[in-house]
Amino acid sequence: MTPSPAPLSLTPVLRAAPAATVAVVSLPFFTPFATCYPAVLITRRLRRLGCRARFLPAHMEFYAFARGRGLPESAYKLFTNRHFASDVALLPLWSPPAPAHRAERAELARTEILAGAEDETRLRELFDAYLDRLAERLVGTEVLCLTSTHFQLLPSLLLARRAARAARTRGVPRPRVVLGGYFGSSQVARDVLARHEEVDVVVYGEAEDVLGDAVHHALQGRRRLVAGRAHTFKEGYAEQSALVAAGTRRPWLRDRLVVSLELSRGCYWDRCDFCNFNDAYDARFKMHDPARVLAEMAHLARTYGQRRFQFLDTALPPRLTQALDASGERHDYRVFCEIRPDFGRERLRQLARLGRVTVQLGIETLLEDHLALMDKRQSVEEGVRMLRAARSLGMRSVWGVMIGHPKETPDHRRRLLAEIRAHRRAGLPAPKYLTECELRPGSGLWDERGALGLSVEFPWRMFDSLLSPREHACSLIPSRVRGMPFEEPGYRADRRAISEELTAWQREQGREAGLDA
């Protein structure tokens, strides 16, 4: 049997109405085949507070709904993975497009990789119909908790508005809405609360230790920004048997379901200058006992035959391998995880005990001075050794090349292309993607933006009704950063040459070409 989770230490601030009816909803466009562990955790915590809480995995449901009504798989993947593609498609459900907005949409289609007009229309119609069905299921719910990532702010607001409308139609009080997730900065969290009467409470940061306060404020009709906290992180782990059991009863999901796991939260490295993970969620590194997480995996495999898992950790802590070594067991799981290139061959060998493992490595570039300007504090040789070690251990590796760093020069890109060609000839496992550096609020680059001559502008004003067009909102609504390398003469030619070389490298090794991350 799986070990019972340790009891939670509930402090006096964790208060909630003893019998409050709460719905926790994970919205599209989170990947539709993976459990949403954060929402499962929130549901469990609410129940421990005495709430009647239920979890609605809308990110899975809507996929089945949309695919069953003719939306192509390729289109759904694009809406799930392409930044702002779903927002552009769904915005007319929020506010009717003015003539100027239609012109902006046409410009976005020319300058950004979005979706075809027919697919956009189909997605919008299907999401509109699904929202009505979902809102009806929420009638009578006192509190609605929404988990919002980069792709879910607009869907969250749409659901909050639609749930209120359904309640009015039935003549009952609307659900009070608690919204948490990725905001990128506390300034954006405040703006969401100030601009959207559909939202009652915004939680900025880690939610579990302040859920009682959030629900209490919502039920009392108090509009609040609540600062998150997770001091009790290590004291409880959310078991996912119910969701796995439900998945086994659905043919479209049974053989595709991936259980999301959280060994740690926050990045233990937290140095790469382009990353804002810890700041965006107001999180600091903390970790569960690895044996507890391994026990959960074993329980799900033994009870339900579940063998697909993914770790949500930004960088899997090496300590997991100690627990694997101590257990002496080998498994036949299929596992995805992200690790740093300095993880080491011996630890990688222990990780292979899990079964068929795919490791995503934060290699970023094949130039030493390129790594240095990103503050990666790793070497090219470390990354190369890990790729080769993963291959020798039968693991699949996923890695990519990043260009467009604000401190990068044309010489960096020319030398990078030469290194790519050299490592391709040497037979190194091919990269999966090419990505361009972003300016993210809270990152090291963000703090240096003035000195680097970077500025944020919002040329597409169609999203003004969602968020104020201020620089901290640049990760959540379409924006353009001035002063980045993509504005330099020759950058696009450099990017095209690198992309073509990486694509040829992929095809040479029989990998699917799909470089844009």
UniProtKB/TrEMBL annotation:
Residues 88-225 form the B12-binding domain. Residues 253-478 form the Radical SAM core domain. Keywords: Iron, Iron-sulfur, Membrane, Metal-binding, S-adenosyl-L-methionine, Transmembrane, Transmembrane helix. The chain crosses the membrane at residues 20-42. Its cofactor is [4Fe-4S] cluster. This is B12-binding domain-containing radical SAM protein. It comes from Streptomyces eurythermus. The lineage of its organism: Bacteria, Bacillati, Actinomycetota, Actinomycetes, Kitasatosporales.
